[in-house]
Amino acid sequence: MDESSKEGKGRHDLLLQEIEAIDDYWGPTFRAIFDTDECDAFADKLDSRIRSHDKDIEKLCSAHHQGFIESIRDLLELKGLANRIHGEVQAIDSDICHSVTQLKLKGQELADARRIERNMKTTIEMLQSCLPVLRAYIKLQQQMKEKRYYPALKTLEQLEHIHLPNISHYRFSEHMKKSLAKVRESIKEASMVDLKDFLESIRKYSPKIGEVAMRHTAEQLNIDISANSSAIKRLISPTMSGEFDYEAPSESEYSVEEDLSAQDLVDFSPVYRCLHIHTVLDAKETYENYYRKQRKKQARLALQPPTNMHETIEGYRQYFHGIVGFFVVEDHVMNTASTLVNRSYLDDVWNIAVSKIASSVRTHSSYCTDPALMLKIKNLVMLFSSTLKTYGYSVSQLVELLQEIRDHYNEVLMQRWVHVFRDIFDEDNYHPIQVTTPAEYQRVIESFPYRDSNLEAAPFPKRFPFSSLVPKVYRQIRNYIQACLQFSQDLNLADQEIDDTLRRYTNLLLTRTLSGCLSTLIRKPSLSLLQLIQISINTNYLEESNAWLEEFIAQLTGASRELSHIARLQGRAVFRDVRDDAEQQIYEALKRKMDEFMELANYDWQLNEPSGQASSFLMDLIAFLQSTFQAFTNLKEHVAQNACLTACRHIAEILMDLLLSDDVKSISMGALQQVNLDVIQCEQFAASEPVPGFEDGTLLSSFLDLRQLLDLLLSWDWSAYFHDYGQDTSKYLRVSPQRAITVLEKLREADKRTVFSVLKKSERDKKKLMETVLRQLRQLLQSSA
C-alpha cells in the first residue's frame, strides 16, 4: 500500500473513533467526511466496522447465554417473592394509612380543641380588655339619651384618653373613634342648643333683671324717683294767692313682685357647661366668638327703642330696664367666667351702646311736650346712669344728655308758660286792682310783695296802681323758676351752678317768652288806649319785681349773693323795652283816636266868613285829650309829656296837611280864617298845660309852623318875609316858599271863582300883588334848590 492509502485509512479510523465516542451529535465529524472525496471509502470502512462489532456481540452473547438463562430463572423466582412481599407491604401500608388517618383526625381534633381553648382564652382576655371601653361607650350612649352632656363629655374623655388606646389594635376601635367624633359633635351641638335656650331666656328676663338692679340702686342711693313727678303739674295752674292743686302719686313708680337677683331669675349653668364643653373640645375660641356675636345682636335689639317710647314713661322704663339687664348679665358672666367676657369687651360694647342710648333718648325726648313726663325721663336717666356707674361704666355722655334734656325741658316749660301768660293776659280787665277787705289786700300782698305806705294808710276800698296781671305774672315767673329747679335737683350740681342755670333759664323766659307775649299783647288792635296805658303802668311794677326774683332764686339755691352777679336777671331791660314799645303803641293809639276825630273835619273851603269859634270836631278832640291825659297820672311823667307833645304835633300835622292837600283845589280867605280859629283853640289847649312839667312854649312850638304860615297869609306881610328870608331872626322863619306857593295858588283859585272880583280895583291890585309874590317865591325856591 502506498502512503496515501495509509494516511486515508488512519484518518478514517479517527473519524470512526469520534463517532463511537460521541453518542448524540456527529455533525462536525460528518462535515469533515463530506468535505473530502472519501465518502464511499469511509462508508465501506463504516460497514466493515459495523460487521466487526456485530461479530463481537454475537461472541459475547454466546459466551453469556447460560448465565442469562439462569438470571431469567432467578428473576422469575424473585418475581413471585416480590409479589408476595408487595401484597404484605400493601396490607401493612393500608393498616398504617388507616392508623395514620385516625391519628391525623385525633391530632386535628386535639389541635382544634387546643386552638379553640387558646382562642377562648384570648377572646376572654380581649373581651376583658374591651369591657371597660364597651361599658364606657354604653354609659356614654345612655348619658346622651338622657341629655346629660357634661357627664357624657367626661365619659368621652375617658374613652379617648384611657380606654381606646388599650384597644387601638382592634379594627372596631377605629369605628368607635369615628362614632365618638360624631358624639363629640352631638355634644357640641346639644350644648349650643342649651346656650341658645339660655340666650332666649336671658333676653326674656333681661328687663326684669334691669328693673331689679335699678330698684336696688335707687334703694342704696336713697333716690325717690317719684318725688317730682307730679309737682310740675301743680306749678302750671296756680291761683292768685299762690295755692296749688296737688295730686299725690297713687302708687310707687317702681315695684317688682319679688326681690330677686340675676342668678335667681336666670340659670347660668348652660353658659358654664357650654364653655367647659367647648374648652375640652378645643373649640373655646369658636364658642367665645359665637357667644359674643349673639350677645351683641341682643344688645342691638335692646338698644332699639320702642316706636312709641316718647308717649309714656313706660316706654322709657322698658327701654332702660332691657339695657341695664343686658349689662348686669354680662357683668355676672365676666365675674364668673372671665375668659368668656372681659372688661375690655364690655367697655367696647358699652362705648357703642351709650352713643346709641344718648341718640335714642335725645330723639324721643325731643318729641315730648309734657314737663311732668320729662321729669320722669330725667329721673330714669339718672337712675340708669347711677346703676351702670356702680358696675364700672363711664356715664359722662349720659350726663351731657341730661344737660341737653334739661335745655329741652326748659323749652317745653317756656312753651307751656306762653299759654299761661296768654291766659293771664286774656283774663285781665286792665283796670287797677281794687280790694274792699283786709283779707283781699293781704292776698294781693302775699302774691306780689308790693309795699306803699300811702296805700297801707288809705281806707278801704283800696286801689293798687297795677292790674291783676302783675301779681299773676310775678307768681308764674316764680313757678317757672321752681319748675326749672325741679330738673336741676339731684344732678350733683354745685349751688352756684344751679343758681347760674336758674338765672339763665329765667332770662330766657323773660327775654323770649314773656317779652314776646307782652309784645304780642300790646299790638292787639282790640286794646283801647286806656288798656295800653295800664299795661305800661304794669311794666313799671314788673320791672321793680326783678330784684325780688333775684332774691327768690338766691333763697332757692343757697348760692352766695356776692357771686350772684355772674348772671344777673335781665327783667329790668326786658320790661323797659316792653314799656318803651307800649309807650309807642300808646302814642300810635292816641294818633289813631285823634284821626277818628279829625276824620269828622268837614271844612267849607269856599267859606266867605268864619263862624267866629273853633270847629266842633276840634272842640270834641280837645275834650277827649283833656280827659285822656287825666288817666296818665300813674304813668311816668315823660310818658305823659311825650303823649301830649305827640298829640299836639299830630293835630298840627293834620291841619297843615289839610291846607296843603292836593284834594283841596281852592281856599277862601274865610276858610283860612276858620282854620286860624281852630289853631288858636289848639294853642290855648297847649298853653293850658294839660300835662305838667313842660317848659314854657314847648307845646306851643308844635303849632309854630301853622301859626307863622297863617299869620303871613292873613296879615299879607310879604315884604317882611322877603326882607328877612333866610335869617334866624325872621318872623316867618318856619314858612317855606313851597308851602307859601301852595296856599297862595289855592287862594288865587278861590278868587277866580268870585265873579265881581275883577271889577274892583283893590282886588285887581291884590291879584297883581299875588302874582308878584308868587313869582318871587318861585325865584326863592329855585335859588334855594
Which band does the percent of strand residues land in? under 5%
Which structural class matches the secondary elements?
Answer: mainly alpha
Beginning-to-end CA distance, first to last residue: 198 Å
By CATH, the architecture of the largest domain is named Up-down Bundle
Family: Belongs to the SEC15 family.
Domain Exocyst complex component EXOC6/Sec15 N-terminal: 45-214
Keywords: Coiled coil, Exocytosis, Transport
Domain Exocyst complex subunit EXOC6/Sec15 C-terminal: 397-746
How would you briefly describe this protein structure?
The protein is mostly helical and 785 residues long.
Give a verbal description of the structure.
The protein is mainly alpha-helical. The chain has four domains: 38-151; 171-220 and 263-393, no CATH class; 413-431 and 467-585, Exocyst complex subunit Sec15 C-terminal domain, N-terminal subdomain (Tetracycline Repressor, domain 2, Orthogonal Bundle); 601-784, Dsl1p vesicle tethering complex, Tip20p subunit, domain D (Methane Monooxygenase Hydroxylase, Chain G, domain 1), CATH 1.20.58.670. The chain has 25 helices and two strands. The longest helix is centred in the first third of the chain and has 107 residues, at 39-145.
